Input
Amino acid sequence: MKKIFFKIILIFILLILIITNYNYATDYTNATDKSIGDIIGGADDFINKANTENTITQGATQKAIDLLYNAFLAIGLIATVIVGVILGIQFMTASADGKAEVKEKLIPYTVGCVVVFGAFGIWKLVMILLQGF
Output
């Protein structure tokens, strides 16, 4: 069964690679010679398009990052509180064997909390350091 599943996945990946390469090939064959051969002209077009009014400002980017940070932090806090409350209730209502199982669950819970809040701390530290540049 594993061999059949592996073969199906392999065929699926190969089909995706063939389709994506085919699309790129058709795009280049339909393109004009200027877009393929004129690398400097393409770079100039790219720079000129970047100088339009549709550019992203640094303030807007900072607001989006702050919003994303706060949303993920809130989700992380809510998840840790809910899991902590569930583990606490299980610990209070369990027998001696159940309490041992809950204590075993506390180790991954604690490691998860350290990883989640450590990641948020590192993210905030990096953002503060990058604001100086």
Remarks:
- The longest helix spans residues 58-93.
- The two ends are 55 Å apart (CA to CA).
